[in-house]
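Support case: zinc ion complex. Customer-provided input:
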Amino acid sequence: MPAHPLPPLPQPGPDTAEFWEGCRRHELRIQRCAACRRARFAPRPACPHCGDLRFAWVRASGRGRVHSWTVIHGPTLPAFQHLVPYAAGVIALDEGVFMVGQIRGCPPEAVGEGLRVRVEFDDVGEDVSLPHWRVVGGAATGGGGRARGSSAAARRRGGRAGRARGARTRRR
Ligand SMILES: [Zn+2]
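Agent response - structure generated as follows:
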């Protein structure tokens, strides 16, 4: 039984199923236009730059920097109440697209524009993993129990077998 209520879960559709399947495998997938070669996110059938319908899914580096952010103090959904205060923001990926997510690995007040982050995933069910962002390197000046990168890495090494044993991230 999860330690906390589940967050709202994705409802994969024709455009987004590949993205969520990537998350399940701890891969961050984005679309790249076959005509103009530009990356795009969120997933959609046509290129917002040139309108072409041809594209490929590619695995993003999973790295980027904080573009903008806010600190959530609550009240919030029950699934997030144990996290407050926490930072969430818009991440500019190295591929040139933007994604939104929680920013972990340093105190919320230490988050700032340009801070380097990398993606991590929470396994919230057998077939659902949700991405969030963790501060990279020396920018983290503390964070106490929030610095949990090693457990995430261990889960990645464990892969599906780890999940089959019921291993899950407990958000804190
Ligand atoms: Zn294009």
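Helices lie at 17-24, 78-81, 149-164.

Case will auto-close in a few days if no follow-up is received.
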